[in-house]
Design a protein that fits this description.
It contains twelve helices and 16 strands. With 411 residues, the chain is an alpha+beta fold. It has two domains: 6-209 and 327-406, Aminopeptidase; 211-324, 2-Layer Sandwich (Alpha-Beta Plaits), CATH 3.30.70. The longest helix is centred in the C-terminal third of the chain and has 21 residues, at 291-311. The chain is globular. Bound molecules: (2S)-amino(hydroxy)ethanoic acid and manganese (II) ion (2 copies).
Length: 411
């Protein structure tokens, strides 16, 4: 049985993908900014059109809920993801999962299917964490891992406060986070990596997710003249930052290492061509599927920083921005994904999520797993992010089958 309205799903992905395109043609919807508001408004319209109950919680998480008098006392089968983006983003990251979840629920409702459990789709606030840390914030609050007050007090990279921004855009909801107790949670997402396509798989059954460590490092040296200052006199914050960046890459290249690390933000001041930088502020994103190995990476970096402070005569401080341990997903749901993929003759492999996901927080509450669709050339967090319509739809059908079975649905 094919449950979804293919044209409607693809149309929603296209429409949402057009929201937040700036003057330079870059798609950017940072948490609680005006573009995020526009996307939220559009999603809420679609939730209402689907005839679902709309709810917004105190940290702006949006929910579309389908419940009947017969099943409303049961725990809900939940799905969801995010519609906020990184800077200059693709159109599928997060949005695919939210819109496919809405589509499956709406199609079940329209087909007169009866379910033993309510179904709900969520769009979680600030999954990307670009404007406010930590990332995966809305689902972390929902799962009880972070206080709503702390989330609302978060100060952004632009000096704004999340709670005020949510009020400004009209998404500081009344509902308490965690109001819906989930029976299970399944998130559909693009892989954002190259494996499925490169190995010829149509779908991924995500069995685990790697740990993430985010820090902001500040290095303070001495501002001085680029021409007159002898090398031996220099306390060069820019050079010290460069040494950290190369150190991080060397750690990843150690044979057998599964660590990936990224310095995505870097600011030098005073940022003038002929002035030795007095200050470097940059972010470090460290990831590893094994918790002990991730801790070892954090310790190795800390040791390197204290040695560097000595050798380069600079002052170094590190601030933790967010930290998530690796997560194992629910074996039962992973097997469900494999079963329905096989029934649809789709080549499926088990896979690790390299990206952080809202599902990793929902796993704190209930049996949880994810489904990946292939990403062309593994490109993501980039406007060239692409998944063929046929792949989007095939994975959405398996996703529908899994939700159908978890919800105890009857035609
Ligand atoms: O950073 C991540 O892994 C995700 O895109 N939030
Ligand atoms: Mn995502
Ligand atoms: Mn992302």
């Amino acid at each position: 049985m094919n449950l979804i309205n293919e044209e409607r799903l693809l149309g929603h992905i296209r429409t949402l993908g057009q929201i937040g395109i700036d003057a330079d043609g870059r798609r950017t919807r940072l948490a609680a900014d005006d573009a995020d508001k526009a996307a939220r408004d559009r999603l809420c319209e679609w939730i209402r059109e689907a005839g679902l109950r709309l709810a917004v919680d105190t940290v702006g998480n949006i929910f579309g809920i389908w419940e009947t008098p017969e099943n409303r006392r049961e725990k809900a089968v939940m799905t969801g993801s995010h519609i906020d983006t990184v800077i200059n983003a693709g159109r599928y990251d997060g949005c695919y999962g939210v819109l496919a979840g809405l589509e499956v629920i709406q199609s079940m409702k329209e087909a007169g299917i009866r379910t033993a459990r309510p179904l709900a789709v969520a769009a979680f606030t600030n999954e990307e964490g670009v404007r406010y840390a930590p990332d995966m914030m809305g689902s972390l609050v929902y799962a009880g891992g972070y206080a709503a007050e702390d989330a609302c007090a978060a100060v952004g990279i632009d000096g704004t406060v999340l709670g005020e921004e949510l009020r400004r855009i009209g998404y500081a909801g009344e509902t308490e986070p965690g109001f819906l107790a989930p029976f299970s949670f399944v998130e559909l997402h693009i892989e954002q990596g190259p494996i499925l396509e490169a190995e010829g798989y149509a779908i991924g059954a995500v069995e685990n997710l790697q740990g993430i460590s985010w820090q902001r490092i500040t290095i303070e040296g001495a501002q001085n003249h680029a021409g007159t200052t002898p090398i031996s006199y220099r306390q060069d914050a820019g050079l010290a930052a460069a040494r950290v960046i190369t150190f991080l890459r060397e750690r990843c290249l150690i044979p057998g290492s599964r660590t990936v690390s990224t310095v995505g933000c870097l600011e030098l001041s005073p940022n003038a061509i002929n002035v030795i930088p007095e200050k470097a502020v940059f972010t470090v994103d460290l990831r590893n599927p094994d918790e002990q190995a991730l801790q070892a990476e954090e310790q190795a970096l800390a040791a390197f920083l204290s040695e560097l402070a000595e050798t380069d005569r600079v002052r170094i401080t590190a601030e933790r921005l967010s930290r998530f341990e690796p997560v194992l997903f629910d074996e039962g749901i992973v097997r469900l994904v494999e079963k329905h993929a096989a029934r649809r003759s789709l080549r499926c492999r088990r896979i690790t999520s390299g990206a952080g996901q809202d599902a990793q927080n929902m796993a704190l509450l209930c049996p949880t797993a994810m489904i990946f669709s292939p990403s062309h050339l593994g490109i993501s967090h980039n406007p060239k992010e692409y998944t063929a319509d046929a792949d989007l739809l095939a994975c959405a059908e398996v996703f529908a089958d899994v939700l159908f079975e978890l919800a105890g649905a009857k035609e």
